[in-house]
């Protein structure tokens, strides 16, 4: 159990080789890390870094972060996960040299959607679970209100892992700084 962001029960799934906690969380992603299942590429990857807590019922997860994305598919953001076959990851992913707002929903197999954004220094992601729905919103460089990115079905009432994720599928790794991480019930 790790103390950070006002709670003492954070845990790693796939702990990175380099990370630290102070007023925020700094991570250097390990190379060859990702979360993905089957679709298009035919492989299963469950090696990305997830820093999370357990929570059940309705909740709101908010994170604000910066990333030094340098290689194709470097990524950071938020994740909600029931098990290796049921999860949502969302945030920023570097695709063809540009940041994209990204969401991957996995129920046995992964689907992926991206939307072009201007490259941003700081990004805020909000994931809200209400009943059987996850709503994802994002904001760039402190912009309010947040823009909706995805609305998805997700099993209601199951206890999940919720927190921040990052990965580097193709490159040597990248630095990510999470300055804000809030996970509240209701």
UniProtKB/TrEMBL annotation:
InterPro entries per UniProt: ConA-like_dom_sf, DUF1349, UCP022704
Pfam families, sorted: DUF1349 (PF07081)
Protein origin, superkingdom: Bacteria
PANTHER family: REGULATION OF ENOLASE PROTEIN 1
Name of the protein in question: DUF1349 domain-containing protein
């Amino acid at each position: 159990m790790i103390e950070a962001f006002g709670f003492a029960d954070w845990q790693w799934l796939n702990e990175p080789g380099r990370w630290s906690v102070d007023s925020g969380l700094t991570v250097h992603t390990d190379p060859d890390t990702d979360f993905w299942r089957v679709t298009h590429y035919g492989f299963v990857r469950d090696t990305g870094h997830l820093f999370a807590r357990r929570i059940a019922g309705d909740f709101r997860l908010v994170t604000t972060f910066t990333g030094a994305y340098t290689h194709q598919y470097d990524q950071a953001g938020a994740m909600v996960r029931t098990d290796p076959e049921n999860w949502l990851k969302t945030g920023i992913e570097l695709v063809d040299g540009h940041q994209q707002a990204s969401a991957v929903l996995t129920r046995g197999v992964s689907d992926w959607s991206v939307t072009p954004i201007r490259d941003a220094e700081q990004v805020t992601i909000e994931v809200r679970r209400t009943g059987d729905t996850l709503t994802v919103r994002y904001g760039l460089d402190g912009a309010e209100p947040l823009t909706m990115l995805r609305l998805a079905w997700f099993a209601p009432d199951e206890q999940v892992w919720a927190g921040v994720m990052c990965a580097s599928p193709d490159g040597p790794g990248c630095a990510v700084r999470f300055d804000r991480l809030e996970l509240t019930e209701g």
